[in-house]
Amino acid sequence: xxxxxxxxxxxxxxxxxxxxxxxxxxxxxxxxxxxxxxxxxxxxxxxxxxxxxxxxxxxxxxxxxxxxxxxxxxxxxxxxxxxxxxxxxxxxxxxxxxxxxxxxxxxxxxxxxxxxxxxxxxxxxxxxxxxxxxxxxx
Length: 138
What we know:
Elements: H1 7-57, E1 62-66, E2 69-74, E3 79-86, E4 89-93, E5 97-101, E6 103-111, E7 114-121, E8 126-132, E9 136-137
Parallel strand pairs: 1-9
Antiparallel strand pairs: 1-2, 2-3, 3-4, 4-5, 6-7, 7-8
């Protein structure tokens, strides 16, 4: 008798290897799909934040960026609001009006009638955008 594998043993081992590879391929595909969906949801959140911020800034006439927060004042009633990052959330104070969640860090810069925003989410995704401002910048 010869030492070696029979044809049936070889076919069964190839079947098992192909099933393992198929399961691995499905797992990798599912991971890529979930990652893509999560990335797309962060994109949607970021774009929604920019739209909300632009709309919110249209109500204020005096806008000033300082120490990674935005000071917004209505000249007619002296109402001052701040847009700031705290506890991984960007929100408007006084009060509590959250605009964006899971934010690790951000920076704000102003130039003429444009507000530049650089932002890093807690998953290290980096976003950069700009918002047109109708009010006065200092």
